[in-house]
Each structure stands twice: as C-alpha cells, then as structure tokens.
Amino acid sequence: xxxxxxxxxxxxxxxxxxxxxxxxxxxxxxxxxxxxxxxxxxxxxxxxxxxxxxxxxxxxxxxxxxxxxxxxxxxxxxxxxxxxxxxxxxxxxxxxxxxxxxxxxxxxxxxxxxxxxxxxxxxxxxxxxxxxxxxxxxxxxxxxxxxxxxxxxxxxxxxxxxxxxxxxxxxxxxxxxxxxxxxxxxxxxxxxxxxxxxxxxxxxxxxxxxxxxxxxxxxxxxxxxxxxxxxxxxxxxxxxxxxxxxxxxxxxxxxxxxxxxxxxxxxxxxxxxxxxxxxxxxxxxxxxxxxxxxxxxxxxxxxxxxxxxxxxxxxxxxxxxxxxxxxx
Length: 328
Ligand SMILES: [Zn+2]
Prior knowledge:
Layout: E1 3-7, E2 11-15, E3 18-22, E4 34-35, E5 53-56, H1 57-65, E6 74-77, E7 82-85, E8 88-94, E9 102-107, E10 112-115, E11 137-141, H2 154-170, E12 174-179, H3 184-195, E13 200-202, H4 204-215, E14 223-224, H5 228-236, E15 240-244, E16 255-260, E17 274-276, H6 284-294, E18 298-302, H7 306-316, E19 320-323
Parallel strand pairs: 3-4, 4-5, 5-6, 10-11, 11-18, 12-15, 12-16, 13-14, 13-15, 16-17, 18-19
Antiparallel strand pairs: 1-2, 2-3, 7-8, 8-9, 9-10
Helix pairs in contact: 1-4
The structure holds zinc ion.
C-alpha cells in the first residue's frame, strides 16, 4: 500500500485510497476524517470541516466550556481504543501535554505511523508523561528541537516560582501569572495549590478551562475574579491572579507580572517582572529519547525547530528525517 505523508494546511496521511487529516489549520471541504490532537487554538483550525472530527473527551470538555460553536459534528475517541477506517486503524494515546492531549497511532496493513501532536515526556502536576509508541514512520513535534532547550528539573522550577510569588506578596504586590488559559494556567494553579495556602483568583477564560479539568478528576482550587469573593481577594491583595497571556494589566503598581514558558530559558521576555521555564512540551533531550524508543525508519519533524531537528536526527541518530513543509 502506497504511503504518503504531507503538509497541506496540516498533516495529511495517505494510505492507499484513504486520506486522513491531523490538526488541519483550516476547514476542510472533503469528507475525509480529521483527528485533533488537543485544545490549543493552533491545532483547531479544522473544527467545523465537512469530514468527521475526532477529539478526546478532555479536549471536547475544554471546547464545550469555552462554548466553541465549531464542535457540533464530532466523534469522541478514548485513549487506547482503535477506530477503523477501511483497512486502517487509528488509536489515540495520552500525549502528556494538557488535559485531553493525544498522540495518534495509525496502523495500515504494512506500515505503522505515529503522529505525536504536542507532546510532553515527563510527569507534570496535572498531566502524566506520554509513553513512546514504536513506529515505522514518526511525525514528531520539534517546538524545542534544539539542543539549547534542555529544561531544568520540574521541582526546581516550581520552587523558584513559589519563592518569587511569596516574595512579591511580602512586598505587598499581587503576583500575576500571564499564561495560556488552557493547560499552563491549570499547571501553575496546581503548583500554587500544592505548595502554598495562597488563594488563587482566575480570569473567567481561565476559570472555564479549570472547570473542564475538575470535571475530569483534576482537583484545582481557585476563585473566579468576577465573583464577589474573587473581587474581595483582589482588593485585599494577599492572593495570586492567573490571567491569559494577552490580557492587559492596567495597574502596574499593584501587580507584579510573571510568565511561565519554555522560551524563558533563552529569551528575556518583555513586559513581565519574572519568567519561569515551565513548559508542557518535551525538551530537546526528551524528543531524542522519544525517537530512540520509537525506533522509526523515517522521521518527519513539524513546528518550531523542525529543520534543525531533522538535520540532527539524520546526522547524529542516522535515521532518515526531514522537516514537513508544504513544499515536500
Ligand atoms: Zn499545544
């Protein structure tokens, strides 16, 4: 059976006569099935396509809480359960990146393909590490596929984050974390819940995603900023505020701002007082470990340092590799 992997507004895998789309960046007008890896907006462009959209329960819960109108025609898939498409079977597995995140195993009659989506290969406080899938062809994310990105131990980052938070409270400031409302916000809340007794106040956009996490058994303690209790806490100042990264904070004297992202490892981030290298992605070493465990014959890299990483895989690991771009 002929196998083709391409980038056509997202990942397309052709196995014989069948075409399957993964994380398309825009709506598709064909009836071909679509699989969404997780609820971050850069992976959701294909929602509302003509073909059936497949998502995990966690992803669906987040989209429902966010009132995303594009989820009217979808099929829920469970981790570990196979879905048959003619001679092909597609299986979702935990990707460790956020609630509901999936890596996909695509089993054709002769070829086995893995698409990792955004992946994290270590345990966090709100997610379990992804397990590597063995594959003939591996399509792997390369957001941090550069040897300059090796993250410190998670506990070390947690302790730095907590120390900074307590110090800002002592200085009569409200520590504010400007982070992705889905995934990173919940991880920061969990760190604060586990290591401090400080109340955590959340922007409504963060609150909605927190509800999906709680519905899926991940216990988080937070108060919405639009509640009377939330407003009172913000007036009293002895609390932490979690808000989307794009949200403007008007009163700089009252607040002290922080970011939490893997990019903090190499870049001095603008408009924040502190930045912590807390990432929900695999770092360079984890990506290399994944490839070694997966033992593919061919690798396609996507996102971030995809060209650098493909070169590394070819030269250092001796595996055929190339960056997946629309020119391929
Ligand atoms: Zn993501």
